[in-house]
Amino acid sequence: MTAATRPPAGAEPGGPATPEAAGSAETRRSARSGVAGLLGAATSGLFGFVLAVVITRGYGTSGAGAFFAAIGVVTVATAICTLGAETGLMWALPRRALGVRGDAARVLPVALIPPLVTALLVAGAGALAADALAPRLLGDSLANGDALLTVTFAAVPVVVVMTLLLAALRCVRPIRAYVGVQFLLLPVARPVLVGAAALAGGGLLAGMTGWLVPAALALLACLTLVAGPLGVGRGATLRPHSADWSAFWRFALPRAASAAIDAGNMWVGVLLTSVLAGPADAGVFGAVGRYVLAGQLAMQGLRVAVSPQLSRLLGRGERAAAAAVHRQLTRWGLVLSWPVYLLLAVFALAFLQLFGPEFTAGVPAMTVLAVAMLVNTGVGNVQSLLLMGGRSGLHLVATVAGLTVTVSLGLWLIPEHGATGAAVAWAVGIATENLTAATFARSVVREPLVDVATARAAAATVAGVGLAAGVGVLAGGRGLPGLAVALAVLLAGCVGMLTLPRVRAGIRGTMRQIRGGTDAAAAAEPATASTRGR
């Protein structure tokens, strides 16, 4: 799994690499993986938005609320049933040897069997309880709500296995394979199938089936792609040692709870809103949440791109190189995500008008959550640093703190304030979790996670987007005309920036990193110099 690093200029080929050269090599590797992850995340975000439009336009506020609640059920159930094994695979496989003679294949039964058994039990219990749960989760007026929940629970084992195989795929194949399944197959197929069901008048049950079918296709694709590198079917042993079980689950079990919280944070809000305020408010909150999650896809793409790399670096004790990768990707994520959230905060009305006039009640919720996500993306993927460093217990503490705040405030605010109350609760939970995780990550890595370059990028992003948004509001208000003006100003500003020699030099440096050219070390980042003398 470990690729050879290019020796620094003047070094003996095959000789020991200096810390500076190692840091440069790792930032080049992260740049190449990060670009692939970002491209995939952009595609996923686009089709995720299309899916949200299909659901909201096809089913209205109450129907969309029930649809989002059903998605929430399968998402939360899947996150619980995986028992943290998806992160365990991302942590364990990069540290093992692939192929017929390797020991990586032994991890598969360890990671798959307990979650699959758990998923089958949850699916059976959920299907039996569907009659009682449907009125509470989906609303009393929904016809065939029990059938919708039965199908949703029955799909949980499939989605669990797909999730675990996706994690394995990211570790054993180049990132383009993962991107093809996670960021292309799933997000493209879902709006097509859900839209076809809505156009055919098939109702919520047919629409939810259209949302679930791509998971089965992705499972088959992952199984095919994973088998070869692991040597499955070609003689690789699948019988784990007792030490494999203990080592894997000692890491994964603390992650089980935090994984459920991470995956289900928004969907817990949807389910709470559906129960405490009704499916219409849940539909509004779910629509707002789709925008919030779409803005987070850049960070997700970067995270899945480099998590195996971070595991390898931290496993070898190369904390300085891991911190350099983190700082670089934090800047990328900030520059790509903050403009989205700043525009969502200012032009919430315009974005929600695309779903239909009944969804504009979510404007305050959108603004609150967009501001909270500035904190989330501003600290970078600190959760990955904790998890790939083997500190899943600390990550659990951070996620439990965030969930406790979210649920406590939600129970208090949602009955009276509906979707806005749910948004405030989630926003405070987001800030709590991320600031706690950032504090833990800094103490674990013992290297600076934020530098002057990150602060400059943040200030420039806020200034540029703030200026464009201000012009848009003055010219056309906070609706679609104002958003169009702001986007035009941003586009003109970006084109103008390309005329500056310093900006062009920065772009050339980044492209050298991505290509892995011999002079990429100079473009890696000044912070790699912090490794000197260590």
Mean pLDDT score, rounded?
Answer: 79
What gross morphology would you assign?
A: globular
- Helical amount: over 70%
Structural class: mainly alpha
Query: Care to count the β-strands?
Result: 0
Q: Which percent band covers the strand fraction?
A: under 5%
Radius of gyration: 23 Å
Helix segment count? 19
Report the uncertain regions.
Answer: 1-23, 513-534
- Largest sheet data: none
Give, in order, the helices and strands: HHHHHHHHHHHHHHHHHHH
N- and C-termini, Cα separation: 26 Å
What is the fold's blueprint, element by element?
Blueprint: H1 19-81, H2 85-92, H3 107-128, H4 130-138, H5 145-154, H6 156-172, H7 175-199, H8 203-230, H9 242-277, H10 279-295, H11 297-315, H12 319-346, H13 348-353, H14 363-378, H15 382-388, H16 392-445, H17 452-476, H18 480-497, H19 501-515
Q: In summary, what is this structure?
A:
With 534 residues, this protein is an all-alpha fold. 79% of the residues lie in helices and 0% in strands.
